[in-house]
Amino acid sequence: MYKEPRIETLKEKKLVGQCIAMSLVDNKTFELFSSFMPNRKTIKNTISKDIYEVMIYSDLHFKNFNPTHTFEKWAALEVSNNETIPDNMRTFNLETGLYAVFHYKGLPQGFGALMTYIITQWIPSSNYKLDNRPHFNILGEKYAKGSPDSEEEVWIPIKKQ
Fold first, then answer.
1. The domain made up of 6-160 is a member of CATH 3.20.80.10
2. Global pTM?
3. What are the residues whose beta carbons fall under 8 Å from the beta carbon of 30, sequence distance 6 or more?
4. Angle at the Cα of 130 from the Cα atoms of 147 and 144, rounded to 5 degrees
């Protein structure tokens, strides 16, 4: 079973990175990160080494879920200012808002079970509903690609019912 999330108000964050359109059926995460990771050192004014994996879904994405629906995924770093942007990158601002923050430990193959739990069990039984803002994961120091001991934070946008 999953632990209860912490509820946190995110302060605006400036990000610089790369994005790509994809669906769960046409998953291009490997392509996105293969392009981003070698170039992340060209980003100036970074605040930390944490990597932000941001997903921007349409407002109907979870209401009429279909694994072929497209969404935008970002690989990015947080910066103190986005005045200097590498040629192959773009800027994105995460707006202030309320989030449920879940801890995930394990392989990518198990991530879908956490998301199913959040959408079908946790949200319906909580005092919150899904908000139409970006979802994101923070891949920090404990993230280890391909390891069952890999850890990340999963930030789900919410608002009071």
1. yes
2. 0.93
3. none
4. 10
